[in-house]
TrEMBL record:
The active site is at residue 149. Pathway: Protein modification; protein lipoylation via endogenous pathway; protein N(6)-(lipoyl)lysine from octanoyl-[acyl-carrier-protein]. It comes from Staphylococcus shinii. Keywords: Acyltransferase, Ligase, Transferase. This is Octanoyltransferase LipM. Residues 32-247 form the BPL/LPL catalytic domain. Catalyzes the transfer of endogenously produced octanoic acid from octanoyl-acyl-carrier-protein onto the lipoyl domain of GcvH, an intermediate carrier during protein lipoylation. InterPro entries: aa-tRNA-synth_II/BPL/LPL, BPL_LPL_catalytic, LipM, Octanoyltrans_LipM/LipL. The gene is lipM. Its EC number is 2.3.1.181.
Amino acid sequence: MTETWNFINTGSKDPYYNMAMDEALLNFVSRGEIDPVIRFYTWDPATLSVGYFQRLTKEIDIEKVNAKGYGLVRRQTGGRGVLHDKELTYSVIVPESHPEMPSTVTDAYRVISEGLLEGFKHLGFDASFAIPKSKEERANLKQPRSAVCFDAPSWYELVVEGRKIAGSAQVRQKGVILQHGSLLQDVDIDDLFDMFVFKNDRLKDKMKQAFVEKAVAINDISNRHITIEEMEVAFEIGFKKGLNIDFKPLVLNEKQQNEINELIDKYKSDEWNYRK
């Protein structure tokens, strides 16, 4: 039988709202107030998000971020820096106890990412899961070479033509899985790499070249320009098919809206963003 999950597209919002909303949805699911939920969103302004464990001042050129007019926010998920610009971002929030959710992070990635896989197929791409084969490849996953996300596909990341096309991160808190990630429409690689601190230009160029070889945006490989609206339609269909679910629109009450607003203050604070 097909299960019905909540769905919400919050549209284009600032970085603090975007991260507060994901955390709030996790809280609502944890307390049993709402069923599992899938959310789509975009970013205004374009924003650099850093992983929960990243050392902000050591890895990020904050002056460059400000000079470019980008937002800056720390995620509650791990991983490396992501520039959220021309992309559709998704989040999936589901109890760990859900019968379809495996207990390990890697296997849960696989299940949730079936929705992404079907979305890319709907857009006409020959997408597949990356499964690191050699011991060396698996070891490299544990020691990322740069602060930039997307420079290597990890377990069950989605690849097209051998290059990573979706970057996701997952956290488990309060008995709930939160997985969110970037579905790149276009990417400005020079702009992205300008915002990270490298020991020297040679290393920066080397990392940039590795990124180009290993990561790709939808419109780099499409024979036509694919819009965000088309992506929204495709991935809504993809999640329904990949997770065997239907959607009902999520409507939040006033108390829940107030909780989101309180969390916005957390994500705006230097205490949160500069905590490492």
